[in-house]
Design goal:
The protein is α+β, with helices and mostly antiparallel strands and 96 residues long. It is built from three helices and six strands, in the order βαββααβββ. The protein has one domain. 35% of the residues lie in helices and 29% in strands.
Length: 96
């Protein structure tokens, strides 16, 4: 049986993006990376500094366990000049 994705509250992600000074467009909500066989997860487009700021902002906003879990599941793909840092098994809850 396939494991269900962990749904993350949109508020946590939006707060972390804001605190990290990242643009909303850097959030990729439906990314399917290498070896995911069509499953989707969320990711952050940018450079390694953007990733570090995002994870640190999550931790500073009281989501340190989530930041640790995301860091553990981290994968990356190249996108030309930038990269996407994605988190298989984690999705952002849909907008209401």
């Amino acid at each position: 049986m396939a494991k269900q994705a962990v749904m993350i509250e949109r508020e946590f992600i939006n707060d972390a993006l804001d605190c990290a000074g990242l643009e909303d467009e850097q959030l990729r909500e439906s990314y399917s990376g290498r070896g995911m066989y069509g499953k989707i997860c969320f990711g952050i487009a940018g450079d390694v500094g953007d990733l570090a700021k995002f994870l640190l902002a999550l931790a500073r906003n009281g989501q340190d366990e989530l930041a640790d879990s995301l860091a553990y599941s981290l994968n990356t793909d190249g996108m030309g000049l930038k990269s996407i840092f994605y988190f298989p098994g984690y999705q952002v809850e849909p907008e209401a």
